[in-house]
Specification:
The chain has two domains: about 30 residues; about 180 residues, no CATH class. It is an alpha+beta fold and about 220 residues long. The protein contains four helices and twelve strands. Strands 3-4-5-6-12-7 form a six-stranded antiparallel beta sheet. It has a four-stranded antiparallel beta sheet with strand order 9-10-8-11, with helices on one face. Strands 1-2 form a two-stranded antiparallel sheet. The structure holds 2-acetamido-2-deoxy-beta-D-glucopyranose (5 copies).
Length: about 220
C-alpha cells in the first residue's frame, strides 16, 4: 500500500517536472519529435503546421517529407539534404543530396551530371566534415579528355552520351582546391563517405551518392 502510494507520487512528480520543463522551453517547441526513424531535437526543429510558429533558426528547420527529415540547401528545400542519421553528441549528420541522387537514378538514358559543387550548397552552421569524407569528382567534357587513358577515370553509364566521367579523389579537405582540372571538362566535387574500408570505387557512384556524407554543425548562439 505504502509502496504503491510512493510510486504514484514519483510518477506524479516526474510528470509535473516534465510539464514544467516543456512550458519553460516554450510550450514544447523544443520537445523532441519523431520523423521517420529519427528523433528531431535541439537545435533542430520541425515546424508546427497548426500554429505555424517558428522554433528557432531557419538553418535548423527540418521538414518531414514522407518520413524523411530534410534540411534545406542554399537553393531551397527542393535541392535539400535528406538526413539519414544524427549524432547529437558529435554534432554530426549523415545526409544525402537528394537532387543528385534522383538525377543519377533517372539517368539510364540521359546523363545527369551533378553541376554544382556540394560546398556551394551549404553555408554555416553546416560544414562538410573534412576528416571522414572522400571526394568523388564528376566530369562533363566537351570532348573525350586527353587523360582518357588515365585509368582512374570511369565512364558514366549514360546511354549513348559518352563525355561523362567520374573518379575518386582523395580525402575531402574542405578547401575545395584539389587538382581536379581536366582540360575541356567541367569538374564537380561531391563528398561521399565511401565503403567502410575507406575505399572509394568510382564505378559505384550511384551507391556512393546514396550512402551520403557527413556534415557537422555549430550550435546557434544561446538565446536564439
Ligand atoms: C527505418 O529503418 C529501417 C531499418 O533500419 C529501414 O529499413 C527504413 O527504410 C527506415 N525508414 C526510413 C523512413 O528511413
Ligand atoms: C547512426 O548513428 C549511430 C551513432 O551515432 C550509429 O550507432 C548507427 O549505426 C548509425 N546508423 C546508421 C544507419 O548509420
Ligand atoms: C554538360 O555541360 C553543358 C554546358 O553547361 C550542359 O549543357 C550539359 O547539359 C551538361 N551535360 C550533362 C550530361 O549534364
Ligand atoms: C542516342 O540515342 C537516341 C535513341 O537511341 C538517339 O535518338 C540519339 O540521336 C542518340 N544520340 C547520340 C548523340 O548518338
Ligand atoms: C568545383 O570546385 C572545383 C575546385 O575548386 C573547381 O575547379 C570547379 O570549377 C568547381 N565546379 C563547379 C561546377 O563550380
Amino acid at each position: 500500500m505504502a509502496l504503491s502510494c510512493w510510486f504514484f507520487w514519483a510518477w506524479w512528480l516526474s510528470l509535473m517536472l516534465a510539464v514544467t520543463a516543456a512550458e519553460e522551453q516554450g510550450e514544447g517547441c523544443s520537445a523532441p519529435k519523431i520523423c521517420g526513424n529519427l528523433t528531431i531535437s535541439e537545435p533542430f526543429w520541425l515546424p508546427d503546421w497548426e500554429t505555424g510558429r517558428s522554433c528557432g533558426s531557419l538553418d535548423f528547420e527540418v521538414t518531414c517529407f514522407k518520413g524523411t527529415p530534410i534540411i534545406r540547401s542554399v537553393y531551397g528545400l527542393k535541392s535539400g539534404f535528406a538526413i539519414i542519421n544524427i549524432s547529437y553528441e558529435e554534432r554530426s549528420l549523415r545526409v544525402v543530396d537528394q537532387h543528385n541522387q534522383e538525377a543519377l537514378r533517372a539517368s539510364s538514358n540521359r546523363c545527369h551530371i551533378p553541376s554544382r559543387n556540394t560546398s556551394v550548397k551549404l553555408t554555416p552552421p553546416f560544414k562538410i566534415n573534412p576528416v571522414f569524407n572522400m571526394d568523388l569528382i564528376f566530369y562533363n567534357c566537351t570532348k573525350p579528355p586527353a587523360a582518357h587513358q588515365d585509368e582512374t577515370l570511369v565512364e558514366m553509364r549514360c546511354g549513348n552520351e559518352s563525355n561523362a566521367f567520374v573518379r575518386a579523389g582523395g580525402r575531402y579537405d574542405g578547401a575545395g582546391d584539389g587538382d581536379y582540372a581536366t582540360e575541356g571538362c567541367q569538374a564537380t566535387v561531391v563528398p561521399v563517405l565511401g565503403e567502410s574500408s575507406g575505399e572509394v570505387d568510382a564505378s559505384n557512384y550511384e551507391e556512393l551518392i546514396s550512402g551520403g556524407f557527413l556534415l557537422t554543425w555549430q550550435s546557434p548562439p544561446a538565446g536564439t
